[in-house]
Structure formats: structure tokens, C-alpha cells
Amino acid sequence: MSHLKFCSRRSPLVCSSACVASSQPLATNIGLDILKNGGNAVDAAVAVAAALNVTEPCSTGVGGDCFCLYYDANTKQVHGLNGSGRSPQALTLELLKDHGFSEANPPPPLHAYNVTVPGAAAGWCDAVALYGRKKLSMGQILQPAIDMAEKGFPVSEITSYHWKNNIHALHTPGNQHGKDLLIDGEAPNHGQVFRNPFLANTFKKLAKFGKQGFYKAHVAKAIVDIIQSNGGVMDLEDMKSHVTEEVKPIAANYKGLDIWEIPPNGQGITALLALNILENFNVKEMGHNTAHYLHVLIEAVKISFGDTFWFCADPEKVAVPTTKLLSKSYARDHSELIDLQRATAKYNHGNPFPAGSDTVYFTVVDTQGNACSFISSSYMGFGTGLVPDGCGFTLQNRGTNFSLQPDHPNCLAPGKRPYHTIIPALATAADSGELLCSFGVMGGFMQPQGQVQVLLNMLEFGMNPQEALDAPRFCVEYNKKTDAWFVFLEDGIPRHITEALRAKDHTVMAHVTGHSRSMFGRGQIVTKGDWWRHWRKMSSNNVLWAGSDPRADGCALGY
């Protein structure tokens, strides 16, 4: 299974009523069933989130976090939920220093210090309470995932690979319940049936008692126990005090489209910064994935990350200059930093953190025209890999994205949310407020650069949603050890383009193939109408068009 061939093509899904796109067909189908049984886009999205926890536990789960954007078709308003968790009150820089940790020597990724309070469970409940249709109970929404966890499901090919690739996190000393996510100590094979009765029981508690069924009583105690027994400091009060935050989404206008993101501590602002910079160039004239085009996009991404790696932090704890960062004048000034002939070595206020590419993104558009752009993650595969007793899920390691530099805005502090990589997105028409697109690309720090690439594929080059996801991508990464930017190119970008980028002084790693393509993320797209064909006219076509990333096991389905 070391090789993963990309040898098939897929047409975009077209349908007229409702649509679901996710990285797992079983989860996609569950979302459709919820829509057909009276739920709206948010109800279906939460059902999909729970199903993905069952089918893809190496990417997501209630031991992680979630973010949500909801488009209300009646009001044409975009709403946002920040379902990310906070650090324990007892976790301080001084404590880490006493144990030998620092900016130069942070805790290992699987250390219990890196567990922030899991926000997904509360995010699910709050999303349904705030934006759900109120025709289905939480029990009805979670029941399909409960059934699948109890009866078992056959594991998909790409999921099986990543399950095996991250199995070390479940075998660490002190993680006595890691075996609950294995079969006889091994990760399941492609097509092998896996059951998770412990996760089913956790979902039943959430269905019966709501958020209290997770953040209090047995589940909360089991979470705290496994963390403390592995050297962490989270306690029951940290769990009880968790709250989801309803946030005002941020947006940037790109050539008549408003692109919406969750504000910091989410990194969605990175995509908006890049789009604002790119608006100062005629990227369409450059040609798709030419050396000139890729060079300008790469430099725009580097500039944008340079800002967000410093400024993106918890706005409850520090001031984040979002308005200034998203101003068009700021973008014009930064566009002038791009040398069209040479790559620039540094555009940085701060440096990136360890990357994690395991997340799930999915989207739903319902019969009323409402849309839910939803993303959920445990981070770095299984997160810390720590499994609470009798719960059937792993705990995240989002704390790895804190800085341990005392003067950094994103420096670790008690009760603080870290820089967060997961970002859902929406696009609406700037003049009418009509929904145009619900989309996202999961994958750590690939997410904003993936969003920019697939959006421009549609907007500038007329690709349908499936073509936009199929097209080969680049991924920019910063290496602290060498103090240099690296550009990874996916197989499918011609060799002469690689050499042309190297001639512009880019450090290029090419060409990435097989399962390693996971570094380029896995996206889902649903558009309302075919505006990407002739977007300046803003087609009034109400047909839904959808695509699902070939780098994942999933699909888009509709009716």
C-alpha cells in the first residue's frame, strides 16, 4: 500500500435540491439521510461529524475541536462558531520551564501537556441549538453514527493507510486504552470491519445529557484521569468551564466575491491576506500553474504566513489587528514586496509551528439554500493518541501550536486558545449576498494555501468544483532548522515548471506522489449555480455543483 495511483476521473456532482460532500462515503450518505428526515444543513453536518469520528478516528473526533460557518438563506447572513478548546489553567510557561521545556525544546507532540480542552462535543451541541432546524433531537442526529460504531463498518483504503501510519501514537507507554482503537493490537486493513462500542456509548451520553454528558461526569473524569496519569495538568474545572464562542466571521472581497472565514485564533485570515495581495496581479493572464503564476502565489502565501504566524492568536487574551491586516492598502503595500524574478528568503514576523495534516472538512447545502461549512480535527493524526477509559476516542494535541516565546502574541498562557489550523470557508456574491460556494481544504498549514488554489481554479480559470480539486497543487513549508522556505510540488506539475521555479531561487521538492499527496490536503466543494463558468454575470442557476477530493476516500452526493 505504499503506492496510491491517481488514474481515474470523476465528473462533478450535479443536483437540484440538497448536497453533502465529505471524505467518507458512509458519512456523506448519513448526512443525506438527515436532510431527507427533516434536518437542515447544520443538523446534517453534525451527523456527518459524528460519523467521521467513527470512520476516520485517525483524523477527527470528539477529543478534538471544530469550527463552523453557517449561511442562513433567509437573511443572507453568515454566522460563525469557534469550537476550539483552551489550555488548562494550571499550565504555565513557568511550569514547562521547571520541567526543562522552552521555545527551543518544546514538549514532544504526544505529551499530555499539549492537550487543550476538547471543543468538538460542545461545538456540535451548540451548532444544533443555534442554527439547527429544531425538528430532530440530538439523539436522532447522532443515532446513525451510534449504529455504525456498534455494528461496525468496513475501513476505507486511505483511512487504513493513515491509521497504520499513525499507530505509534496508540502504543505509547501509559496509554493503556490505545488498544480500543485497534484490532488485536493492529490498525485495521482496507475493507476490514471495525467496531467501536465505547465511542457509541460516549455518543449516547451526549445524546441523552447534551454537553453535560461530555464535560461533566464519567467522560470528563476519564479525560482528566488519562491526562494526569501521563503528566498533564488539566482538571475537571477546566472541562466544566469550556464554552463555544459564537463569532463574527471575517471576509475579504476578491473581484466581486466575499470570501468568509472564522477570525483568529483560526488561520483563515491567511487565505484572505493572500487573496488581497493576489488581487493586485492579473493571475489569469499568467496561465494556470505556469512558473510565473506559481511563483506569485507562493510568494503571496509566504508573505501572508509571515503575518499570521505572529499575529494569529486568541483575541480574548491579546489584541489582534484584524482590520488593519485585511485592509486593501495593507495588501497593496505587501504586493510590492514580491520580486517577480526571484524568491524572497524571508517574509516573517514569526515562524511556523509543527505541521499536522489530519483533519476532516465537509460541507452541506440543504433544500432551503442554507449552507454549513464545517471542519473538525484531532490534529497530527490521532492527536496525542491518549484514549480515555471507556470512551473510544483520542485526545488532541493542539497545544503544540502555542509559542513558548514569552513576548509572542500566541505564547502559552492559562485558559488560552492556540493558533488553530482548521478553517472552513464560504463565498457569497458581494452585491446580492447570495451563496455561491461552501468549500474547504483540510491539512494543517496547507489549508489556507489549498483554499486559495482551488478558489482561483474556479474563479480565474473556469474549472468546475471537481476539476478545481483534481488539479495538482503546491505546498509551502518553512523549515526552522535550515531557516528556509521549501516548496513541494504535486505530481502532475510538469518538470519544466519545476526547473523554472528553481531558476527563481525556490527550494523545490518534486514531485510528490502516492500517499504522500496527503500533504496537499483533502477538500470538498459545493457551489450554487455555475458562476465559475462566467462568474462576472453571477449566474442565477440554482443547480448545485459539487466535488470531492481524490486524495481522500470520500464523495459528494445529492438529490
Layout of secondary structure:
Elements: E1 13-15, E2 19-22, H1 25-36, H2 41-55, E3 65-72, E4 77-83, H3 93-98, H4 120-131, H5 138-151, E5 153-154, H6 157-165, E6 193-194, H7 197-209, H8 212-215, H9 217-229, H10 236-240, E7 245-247, E8 250-254, E9 257-261, H11 268-278, H12 283-286, H13 291-311, H14 322-325, H15 328-335, E10 360-365, E11 371-377, E12 425-429, E13 435-442, H16 446-459, H17 465-470, E14 474-479, E15 484-490, H18 495-503, E16 508-512, E17 522-528, E18 544-548, E19 555-558
Parallel strand pairs: 15-16
Antiparallel strand pairs: 1-18, 2-10, 2-19, 3-4, 3-11, 4-7, 5-6, 8-9, 9-12, 10-11, 12-13, 13-17, 14-15, 17-18
Short key terms for the protein model shown above:
559 residues; alpha+beta; seven-stranded antiparallel sheet; globular
Number of structural units classed as domains? 1
* Spatial order of strands in the largest sheet: 1-18-17-13-12-9-8
What distance separates the N and C termini?
34 Å
Oligomer: single chain
Q: Which structural category do the helix and sheet elements fall into? A: alpha+beta
Largest β-sheet summary: 7 strands, antiparallel
Whole-number average pLDDT? Answer: 94
The helical percent reads 25-40%
- Outline: globular
Radius of gyration using CA atoms only: 22 Å
Name the poorly predicted regions. Answer: 350-355
Tell me what portion of residues adopts beta-strand conformation.
15-25%
Q: Got a strand count? A: 19
Number of helices: 18
